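Lecture notes, unit on binding sites. The following record was shown on slide 14. It pairs a sequence with 2-acetamido-2-deoxy-beta-D-glucopyranose.
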Amino acid sequence: MHLKLILVLFYVLVVLSAANGILGYGEDQQLFSFRKHSLFPYNNGSSSCSFQRSRKQNGATILEMKHKDQCSGQVKDWNKRHKEQLIADEVRIRSIQARIKNMISGQSEIISQARIPIVSGVRMQTLNYIVTVTLGGKNMTVIVDTGSDLTWVQCQPCRLCYNQPEPIYDPSYSSSYQNVTCDSDSCKSLQSTTGFKGVCTKEKPSPCYYTVSYGDGSYTRGDLGREQMILGDTNVSDFVFGCGRNNKGLFGAASGLMGLGRSGLSLISQTTDIFGGVFSYCLPPTQGDSSGSLILGGDFSAYKNTTPISYTKLLSSPQLSTFYILNNTGASIGGVPIQSPSFGIGGILIDSGTVISRLPPSLYKAVKTEFLKQFTGYPPAPSFSILDTCFNLSAYDEVNIPTIKMQFEDDVELTVDVTGVFYFVKSDASQVCLALASLTYENEIGILGNYQQRNTRVIYDTVQSKLGLAKESCNFM
Ligand SMILES: *[C@@H]1O[C@H](CO)[C@@H](O)[C@H](O)[C@H]1NC(C)=O
Ligand SMILES: *[C@@H]1O[C@H](CO)[C@@H](O)[C@H](O)[C@H]1NC(C)=O
Ligand SMILES: *[C@@H]1O[C@H](CO)[C@@H](O)[C@H](O)[C@H]1NC(C)=O
Ligand SMILES: *[C@@H]1O[C@H](CO)[C@@H](O)[C@H](O)[C@H]1NC(C)=O
Ligand SMILES: *[C@@H]1O[C@H](CO)[C@@H](O)[C@H](O)[C@H]1NC(C)=O
Ligand SMILES: *[C@@H]1O[C@H](CO)[C@@H](O)[C@H](O)[C@H]1NC(C)=O
């Protein structure tokens, strides 16, 4: 009897400590297997990006979303590609910072453009995710961007168009196309939407000429139009978009861009009566043939989240009305809380277009120090572009990575997916870098980039001004 009791107690103890061990382990570290997470997107010509699927589920319209790297043809030199991507990412960040500075000081956008270095030969590689919509009856594959508002496509007759796989949209063949005139509210709202005033001419009625500049030398210019747009099988009539007659920048496989920012002309503002001002996405990693989804509308049944959704409020700043900004209140590495004076101040901008998250210098330093303390024993590797915490992991089949978490106001937590911690510079894993970088100045705004948003359902509720986060393994079907 005595012995039995001791045995039972012993058994309970063993079970308890085992459970504890697993819990503690699962929480603080994530196993990264090099074989399972094949490092580079394969593209043997089987996947095509000319058409992304869509479906409807209850009140939600679901568009398949892919990473451009999965369909931009064979990449010969990944090193070069990665370097260019990070240069482009840095240019995007500098442009966002300059834009914010000007928005706050009330200066016109044009001044900021002069200060932004134009990097020639850099592809528009930061805006990575694409969906397909139908505009005026034609399939159009467009880049998804939460950091800008105007949706546009390349348009005939075109003064300057980059190469695109799909035929260029031609309004003269569309019976549902209409011009937007210069005296319309849409034209007047261009200043707040794009930073550039709509331009009128002496023609009567005058078309409304727009310009959007993305700060890396890429831009689109043209005139506003209205057209019938079909998202999945949801019909949006009189959708205001940019007919781009002069477009520069290699927007890759895309015919244009979908603006999902927070202000007037953005797609989500124009469809509030249909989708209730709610959209969400799940950004898939580039590895393998994964696909994600862009869901328009707030029907919960369309999500495949594996943790409950929790919401944090979007900070409102009248000057930065385009952007989605969160209150970052904390962070932890492998369960160890990070201390930083930057928490709770200024906010962090969540962006689908930026690749690598940028943290205030003091916070980045604290994160890096703690990460290096826990991820020990691995041979270091040289820095790569903006990434300065690199390792040579070519001798390993798998590694345990300290879990990175970020906290936001209202007790919301983002656990960075295991595929969003390291940036693989070299395919043999001889140069693998922590996918986080430092801002230049303490007072610049932090950015939550798309690498750290992978395999997460991110819900933007523009009406209730809140953002939801939950874990999800991205998959269109
Ligand atoms: C392309 O590669 C994938 C994964 O390796 C494989 O499943 C598929 O059959 C290949 N397709 C062709 C056309 O070779
Ligand atoms: C759009 O693409 C789909 C799938 O490839 C195709 O079935 C459909 O006919 C296309 N629509 C038009 C108008 O080209
Ligand atoms: C729209 O405006 C353009 C530019 O002025 C003009 O060439 C075109 O004919 C107009 N289209 C319609 C449908 O009014
Ligand atoms: C979309 O709506 C417009 C205007 O209501 C209508 O003319 C058109 O036939 C509709 N298209 C589809 C595909 O439902
Ligand atoms: C962020 O949240 C913290 C904690 O709730 C609060 O004290 C702080 O004022 C908030 N910051 C902003 C900019 O709203
Ligand atoms: C990386 O580590 C492997 C095995 O430890 C070694 O053979 C290789 O030379 C290292 N590569 C570089 C670029 O340092």
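Take-home: Residues 304-471 form a domain with the Cathepsin D, subunit A; domain 1 fold (CATH 2.40.70.10).
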